[in-house]
Amino acid sequence: MFEGDNTVLVIGAHPDDEVLGAGGTIAKHANSGDDVHILIVTEGTTHQYGDTELIEEKKKQAKLCADTLGASTVHFGDLPDMKLDQIPHVEVNSVIEGVCCEVNPDIVYTHSRREVNLDHLAVHESTVVATRPGSGVSTVLTYETPSSTDFATDIDGFNPTLFTEIEEYLDVKTDAFNCYETEVREYPHPRSTESIRSIAKARGAASGCRAAEAFDILRAYR
């Protein structure tokens, strides 16, 4: 997966989802020479906080985060935060399909379907549509989102089938996450630097290395 000739698209519903779920893997892809793009589907601010002035600040933070990880571009869908379950499914599809057509990714990362956040679920479902057979995407993987995936209570919980070793990139991941100054929380909140490190170490211990990120393989064509 890290051959240096892949185009990678990481899709998140909100600013910071991408780094929480796959930050170390993004940095690893970029360091391997892969062309990495990030799509943030919503503006991530207005409906939840009622403050439109934060939109541009969040975009600046997302770009700084992407630069820290080594991603080449950040795309913004600008759909309403916390409302993706209330707008037509086809509108979310259109945003994701549009970016897929623009960057033509080989590998796509997106949200798990095991989520308490309805925006995350909507992005998952629309990614499945956008990356359906014939789309040109060879591999689709889902990631876990701290403070959302881990709060879900479904019987068929997040069940990782792929672990990416990220010991070399764990500092880069936490540095990139800290670019989102408005999202960083104090430990033991899952969106804290210490928690991010703990999760990576736990996933590493589960897969025989010192630090890892966990994914579920949704589709893989070889």
TrEMBL record:
InterPro entries named among the record's database cross-references? GlcNAc_PI_deacetylase-related, LmbE-like_dom_sf
Origin species: Halorubrum tibetense
State the protein's name: PIG-L deacetylase family protein
Question: Which spans are transmembrane here?
Answer: none
Please list the GO terms describing molecular function. Answer: hydrolase activity
Which keywords does UniProt give here? Answer: Hydrolase
Enzyme class, one word? hydrolase
Pfam families registered for this protein in UniProt: PIG-L (PF02585)
- The enzyme's E.C. designation: 3.5.1.-
